[in-house]
Design brief:
41% helix; alpha+beta; four-stranded mixed β-sheet; 22% strand; 112 residues; 5 helices; Glutaredoxin
Length: 112
């Protein structure tokens, strides 16, 4: 279980979440963004984060520039931004910016 099993399609991830009654973790990033790269290479590589995300969420990671419809739909104003949704598609939590692994896990806990 070395890495997060990211999906690359919002609609199919939401459908999967509904079928499995799981929450969706959506990360919007931008290529070349230093905080985005740090979040992905450090926080998302942490064993505890990998385990928590893969076991509790349907994770989706999308480049904001390539998915402006989603950026606008959820009124995302910076990168990286992590959003948590219920299986019904309702936003439960959002946290913009970089978080080290322990703080990232604390943010995820707020979405329960």
């Amino acid at each position: 279980m070395g890495e997060i099993n990211w999906r690359d399609n919002w609609d199919s991830a939401l459908e999967e979440a509904k079928k499995e009654n799981r929450r969706v973790l959506l990360e919007l990033y931008m290529d070349g963004c230093p905080h985005c790269m740090k979040l992905h290479s450090e926080t998302h590589a942490d064993a505890g984060v990998v385990q928590a995300v893969n076991s509790q969420y349907i994770p989706v990671r999308l480049d904001g520039r390539q998915n402006m419809d989603i950026v606008k739909k959820f009124n995302v104003t910076g990168a990286p931004t992590t959003l948590v949704f219920g299986a019904d598609g309702k936003e439960l939590q959002r946290f913009p910016g970089y978080y080290p692994p322990a703080d990232y896990l604390k943010q995820l806990e707020k979405a329960i």
